[in-house]
Design brief:
Helices cover about 35% and strands about 20% of the residues. The protein is built from 15 helices and 13 strands. β6, α7 and β7 form a beta-alpha-beta unit. It is globular.
Length: about 400
Amino acid sequence: MIDIINKCECTGCQMCEDICPVEAISFFPDECGFWYPKVDYQKCVKCQKCINTCPSLNSMKNENYNNPIVFAGWAKNKNIRLSSTSGGAYYVFAKDFLEKNGIIAGCVYSKDYKSAYHTLGFDESDLIKIMGSKYFQSNSSGIYKDIKIQLSEGKKVLFCGAPCQSAALYSFVGNHPNLYTVDFICRGVNSPKAYRAYIEEQEKKANATVSKVHLKDKRKGWQSLATYMQFSNGKEYYKYRYNDWWIKGYIQGNLFMREACHHCKYKNIPRVSDITIGDFWGIDGLSDEDMFNGVSAIILNSCKGKELLNNVKDSLVLNRMSLDDVSNGNPCLLNIAKKGKNRDNFFKDLDEMPFSKAVKSNYDGTFKEEIKNILKTIRKEIFKSKKW
């Protein structure tokens, strides 16, 4: 059954758990903290639904656009734009969907901010929880059943998740007319175990529990890739891309991504979801203010995607772009992130030492590249300060 799937293929979408008619499939974490299916063969009736519907083991028919429509954009509402991790496009889509009596589904933090899971959202308070990047894998167990129930009751659902999760949802419910999907430009999903270790190390240093986490915090600008944490005793943590060990281990070290992400089947066109969103890295010609506040890449992959954008176009600033414009600054739109050569050793070290030390011990010398980026930033600031 499905528990023989190779780790290079299993995305951890957990759809097979939802589709099993006798609840014979459960998920358990491996030594790296990624969950994989286990079958209870005393319950299993060998219907093979788990194998026959797994998107990693079966090719899917995809009639989305071979030439998607691309925009750079951001929310006209400045507060929404600043509180979002990119330009606020997702919030605009989801808010309009809710106002039209639809239901949203997306990823939220657990109460202790040490894990994340997929859930349904029914109002703006739920949307606020779904907003923002979570740079590690969410638990999506049960969400496919929940969405199918809503669709069967005639509700419209807007799902947001990783491309592999969208693929799993389509495998579960089919191309339902009331289902709309949004995925994001995904570099790869990170280990929940590694993320928990990262948070717990900061809690130990602060001698308090974390009460807020904001990845890609914008107080020093959209491009800072900063991380902000607030603790129960009032202490705060703030680091940006060059001095935060989570970002260094993920973006530059490739140390704690899921094995299947290094063999991803969704880095292609046509995309699996109706809309793809993400940061519009590398965009030129915008004002300093816009580059500070954040810019979304909005890729329309289907007629449903066009419908969603048409519904909210008055709430967004939009500039028509090309797919090359996006992929030039977002290589992971079409290219797989290579496995860090010290990834396996990192997880061994993580069992013996704090998160930051495990990253530092296995961080593979991109120091020169970092210095180059820092000097580039300094030169840019000097250039801006000159009066010509």
